[in-house]
What does this fold into?
Amino acid sequence: MMPAVFAGNSEHADLLLALFIMLVAAKLMAEIFERINQPAVVGEILAGIIIGPGVLGWVQPSYIIKVFAEIGVILLLFNVGLEIRPISIVRVGKRAMLVGVLGIVLPFVAGYGVSRLWGGGEIEAMFIGAALVATSVGITARVLGSLGLLNRSTSRVILGAAVIDDILGLMILSVVSSVSHGSINYVAIIGTALTAVFFVIVVGAVGSRFFKKIAPAINRLKISKPFFKFGLILCLGLSFVALYIEVAAIIGAFLAGMALSEATENNPQMRGLTNGVMEFMVPFFLVNIGMQLDVKLFGDLSVVTYALAITVVAIAAKIIGCGLGAYRMGFKKAIQVGVGMVPRGEVGIVVAQIGIGLAVINQKAFAAVLFMAVATTLVAPPFIKMLGPKPKKAKEDIHISDVVTRIG
Amino acid sequence: MMPAVFAGNSEHADLLLALFIMLVAAKLMAEIFERINQPAVVGEILAGIIIGPGVLGWVQPSYIIKVFAEIGVILLLFNVGLEIRPISIVRVGKRAMLVGVLGIVLPFVAGYGVSRLWGGGEIEAMFIGAALVATSVGITARVLGSLGLLNRSTSRVILGAAVIDDILGLMILSVVSSVSHGSINYVAIIGTALTAVFFVIVVGAVGSRFFKKIAPAINRLKISKPFFKFGLILCLGLSFVALYIEVAAIIGAFLAGMALSEATENNPQMRGLTNGVMEFMVPFFLVNIGMQLDVKLFGDLSVVTYALAITVVAIAAKIIGCGLGAYRMGFKKAIQVGVGMVPRGEVGIVVAQIGIGLAVINQKAFAAVLFMAVATTLVAPPFIKMLGPKPKKAKEDIHISDVVTRIG
It folds into this structure.
């Protein structure tokens, strides 16, 4: 008897099972966390730790799961962008810039310091610093979105700062990687940074007006759901462009969404469809983060203390750095911004993976950074929720996602 | 300068570009085909031929694209299932059975005959026959769905027959594959067939009542959009089970949708969200079919004549076989059912790939079957559209997909 040859899918069976397990575990944990009044995001990441290689080993991380995770976070940031008008980011521009810069400098210095204190070499310490730098805005965006808080001023500062943070973080990692190779190509690094800034400004500033203008033409297309399809194409296209000019794909996706936000604000059907795709893919992103953490690594007490030290420093440095940048908003809001920037998620993991690839950090440091990345991601959401104002469902805060949530 | 390491996505850039090109090409061709009043499906498959290795070579078939295609067709059949009540299939059960059986026997015999006439050996001829057997219901379902015709009696006969066709086709391929190995394990084959039948009956008969009963409990869950998420989980789960018991994954997805059809008929939000996921993924399924066809293979005239002969026979045998099975519905409806069963799509391609893997068919026969698979898929939709009654948008024919189509 041949194995399911007729269906031609025998190699897909394992994948379907993995996706099924990930989705069930994510939603089960999300349900539990909602019931104990904690953010579902945390539950879904914990689901990843539990079903991943560290505990039950039911699902192994794989290239294809990574792709699903990546498409998931791209669609998430696209959806977040759709709810943000570019002008609202421009209004907080200077503050976001300050938050972004200070939120980079302090964690880098602090990470460098801790690593040196624990006996790390010069280059290892620079890598640990770099790993502490970049906020993973996906997690924060997910929490803010599910609380209906995306249009608050703190949310806009966080999102703006995350874009700046990403560009600066890229520069730091480039420098650090170059140092570990023994040479630094400043021209190339500055060139990339300028391209990135140019990309963000062009899409952010011109995009919105342009798409608002051509929206009627898009809606006249004969294909079904034309605007939804146009949006998906723009999202994938700008994600690719962002990667191509060496920024994170999610920045492109976020800008694509933001550029369409005005053109689609009276198009709840488009928002509903986009929401459906996102909701399908995002759990793979969250579960995949959790799956990276192998809890067995922490049988070694020295790893545990190192991991805890790095994590505490990572949290404190981000809150203080970003909080300082936002201090003019008042103490409470400044702390909210700082907490919102805490999650490092998959970005910290990637930096650690590069460090191990270049053989400049060892397995213990890798495990510690991994722990930091997941822990900061788990710790922040409850605080974001706690610190956030009770979501009043005022008219301007109700978006299609909320509507669908309550009815569907 | 490191390539996009910071984003950790360098290996994803190529994939994002590929998905972007596939989506743009699909929607561009869909738009053109809608404008010349032809089914968008045909345009999207042609888009695949054009951007694929055969013509422009912009996108190469890959494992990951195949996975996207597979998830796409799974979600498509899940959506189709959502619009079909199980009772409506039971009502056409006997007729669907007859259509399914005759639609298997005639194409197999005809394919075997043509291959023998063209000088093929015994086993090669059996493989050609097997490749002509299985209808790819995805294409037909897509066309019927976009015309809003899923609730017509002809549509229900087609969908019911396609399930039966799939189970019988599986048996034939198992037998043929076993013969090429020199032995046949009848016990295993019959065991698989019985399991498949049991699965279909249990899910179809009991599922609907069960899910209608537990629907209120699902809706009381605390997670957002609980029914949508439950539906996705059931869809992936039953797709896996179907593969596991050696039926096509799409049968599981279709049954999952059908089992939820009654529970969700007053839940347009759920339908809208499901529709969003489907619309994102289905183009990859269609474009991927086109990408399999390398037009360069047809520089050889003997391949062309062989391919045309197989294609003509494949079309005629399905229409006559299925038409005979449905003759009691009247001539016009019988022809509609026959035409609806014509597309072989990815199923024919898979059989050919197995044949080449077992070295029982040669490159020419492979090219001819590939041509047949794509040609039958391209030829059928315009006829389905032409033969179908003008879609009156009567109340019972309006589903969320149509509503969203027109507004979104």
